[in-house]
Amino acid sequence: MKYLYRLYQIVVVLPLGLVITLLTALVVIVGCSVGSGHFWGYYPAHLWSRAILWLFLLPVKVEGREHLERSQSYVFVANHQGAFDIFLIYGYLNRNFKWMMKYQLGRIPVIGYACKKAHHILVDKRGPKKIKATYDAARETLQDGMSVTMFPEGARTFTGHMGFFRKGAFALADELQLPVVPMTINGSFNIMPRQRDFRFAIWHRLSLTIHAPIYPVGQGPDNVQATLHQAYDSVMSALAPEYQGYIENPDQ
To answer: Residue 56: which of 181, 159, 191, 241 has the closest Cα?
Structure first.
């Protein structure tokens, strides 16, 4: 079965995946150029993510959408298990949002340009001015009624376990007094561990657990730290047993 699944990836997933990825990027670029960046920057990629997971024949389970209010802006934070995290959140959170992503992703031909046109926030840490510009863009996005999604670990895991959370997402939520929504991803590491980038995917179930929002109870460093620790514990609580517990990520 393993080799049949690999053959399927070569014959079906690879060619169709490349075609729909390029078409989606072009639709985003054109749509954002002539219409709403909030609409065209989200819905084509939302359908693209679902299509990619459908092509890989990966079953998805989502729990906790009932915690979210329709008109509320959120700062979503999730553990970063692997490359398939993007497809899972984009395709199945069912919430219009902007990504905060590494600025290097903006250099990918076509796709990087589509991300810029969609007004995703490229995190550039090359100096104080660039860091300030990153968070100014995030503030503007959130004040416009949009939500934002971040991986506070800042890097994918090497082991499936969680590293530590950086405070940037929580400081932003604190400044704007917005609720933080922790999310737990399971299965992405099993499908394609970081050490197996650009190799065959391994069939495995995916799950996304959306935890209850954490609302601010004050403002300032104490609220930032309290929200960070509560979010970390929430994400950890729903991780698969084999990935429970902190393990240092040297890439952080």
So the answer is: 191
Tokens 């940037």 correspond to 168
The more confidently predicted of residues 213 and 102 is 213
Phi, then psi, of 30 in degrees rounded to 5: -70, -45
d(CA 51, CA 140): 31
> Rounded to an integer, what distance in angstroms lies between the CA atom of residue 184 and that of residue 236?
7
Q: Are 147 and 119 in contact (CB under 8 A)?
A: no
Of the candidates 128, 127, 130, which has an alpha carbon nearest to the alpha carbon of residue 106?
130
Q: What is the pTM of this model?
A: 0.91
pLDDT of 192-203, one tens digit each?
998 888 889 999
Give dist(CA 62, CA 65) in Å, integer.
Answer: 8
